[in-house]
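User: Could you check the structure of this?
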Amino acid sequence: MLDAATKIILILKDAGHVAYLAGGCVRDRLLGIAPKDYDVATSATPPQLSAIFHNTQLVGEAFGVVLVRLMGCHIEVATFRTEWGYSDGRRPDGVAFTDAEHDAQRRDFTINGLFEDPIENKIIDYVGGQQDLQAGIIRAIGDPDKRFNEDYLRLLRAIRFAARMGFEIETKTARAIRNHARYLGQISRERIGIEVDLMFANTVEPVQRQLAAKLIQDLHLDGPTLNEDHRDVTLPTLGALPDHQDVDAAVCLAAWMLDRHARNGLELLPFLAQGFERTMTQWRNALSMSNEQRDALANTLRVTAKLMQWHELGIAGKKRLLAMSRFAQGRILFEAMKEIQIVRPIADDLRVQVPILLAQGVNPQPWVGGSDLIELGLKPSPAFGDWLDQAYDAQLDGTVCDRQQALAWIKLKVLGHSPDKGG
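Assistant: Sure, the predicted structure tokens are below.
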């Protein structure tokens, strides 16, 4: 992809235009991180770009953004522009084409306002971005109040960049974030959810996830982000999550929720028993979760709630729990709660018992089904489900060891006689 972007820049330069790599790809290259994509900024206008390149698509005509297909890659090429009038707190009311220096001034943070000429191997820095990269600082370009008034989503983007790179947010920028926090609710819930999801993705390191949540709370963005009251709490559960592929955004959100709403044993039991469903629904709406994301969060918390009852469950109940969707994620979350005293003995038992139960099999095919009940002369009824559940529990806990025993067991339970006594 870099080769394609560089080729585009070379073609534009040969045509008499200024063209650079721009934004995040320059930042990441300077940090030694492989960019996920490459953007090009240029003095060429969209009509000029369409005339120079044969395979183009306008993706943001009002903003001068053209998608150029070259060498099997799609590269966004944007005309240098300046913007004004952000009446919706997200998008500009007016746009005009300009030069590279003025284009840099409209961007959010200094580390994102850099350009690179890959032909001459030169960084073009109008905003002090290189210095802030070296110092590990997130700083708004120019007046931070003005930058955040232009786009309130930048409030969360500052947090994400700081957490991802382990940078500090510069004092004036941090103050402006806190002062503008109440306006975050004007941004679409979908965009807020995307930012939070990026902060908690399973590719993000544990220390970065914890830092993101801490900064959100410290700068009073938690209220408008989660659509609940601000809470200044520690984050032991979120911080104890391991660096593991199963630790996805849903597990992180569940840990953050427990840190905010169930900080000790007295709060944990009632919250998991009956309180988390309401909070989960609230967070789902606040972060505009998809059905898949909602189910992942809900099932992670349900597994955790069930694990709290581990010592009261029989063999069948424990095997059913191990077969639940997202058991692995719920157990990771449960293990991260070991700072809470009532969790520790259960976590110790899990380490011993779970491997044994898994070796026995926790989700076998049932030996008895509805057709078997019908063959016994029973008419389909709501009771079928309960009878079959009981038969499956007997199979799971070893009360019956094969299909014949299962049929004999259900005849005794349902019909009140064993098979050798006749029908």
